[in-house]
Amino acid sequence: xxxxxxxxxxxxxxxxxxxxxxxxxxxxxxxxxxxxxxxxxxxxxxxxxxxxxxxxxxxxxxxxxxxxxxxxxxxxxxxxxxxxxxxxxxxxxxxxxxxxxxxxxxxxxxxxxxxxx
Length: 117
Known about the structure:
The chain is an alpha+beta fold. The protein has helices at about 15-25, 50-55, 80-95, 110-115; strands spanning about 5-10, 30, 40, 60-65, 75, 105. Helix content is about 40%, strand content about 20%.
């Protein structure tokens, strides 16, 4: 699963710096169109350190560089199923025996708002 590197910092010459990052990484995707606002760069696990090092050498502040699980496919949940799923996720996250919870569900914003309200 791809890791995440989150760049933040000055925007001067950022397109050139990001070009260096993308050249180093076999697969890199900024999630935000304007790096001045920060964002994520996804790369293969084996390239995590190299991409982080290239970003730092280019003067791009890396807030965090971590390995994380990203699903290839997601399942969209409506309110009834989302409510049940969130109960399970909350219980898992509250358990002292669980370090991280990964899932492949997608809950639309309006459903999340209804669950929170």
